[in-house]
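User: I'm new to structure prediction. If I give you an amino acid sequence, what do you actually give back? Let's try with this one:
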Amino acid sequence: NCLTFNYYGRSLFELSDFQLAAESFDQAIALCKSSKFDEPHYFSALSYYKIGDKSRAVARLEELIALFPEGKYSGQSKNMLKMIR
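Assistant: Good question. You get back a string of structure tokens that encode the predicted 3D arrangement of the chain. For your 85 residues, that looks like this:
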């Protein structure tokens, strides 16, 4: 379930288990394709950034901006991209 993997990922993120959080968000992204839900993309990017994988973080942020230009996390993603670069 899309929301289940997202909330599980958020829980792992809050517990600072960023590697498992990233994996959970990746699963949520795959399951959420049809629901126009941008949150897993954003937190996946944050998780990858926290574990030092900046290239994947940038890829997730760019993907979020492309897929959800008017989404809840679009502005935050643009700011995060500026910070990473």
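You can read the tokens as a compact description of the fold. Here is one thing that stands out. The chain is about 75% helix and 0% strand.
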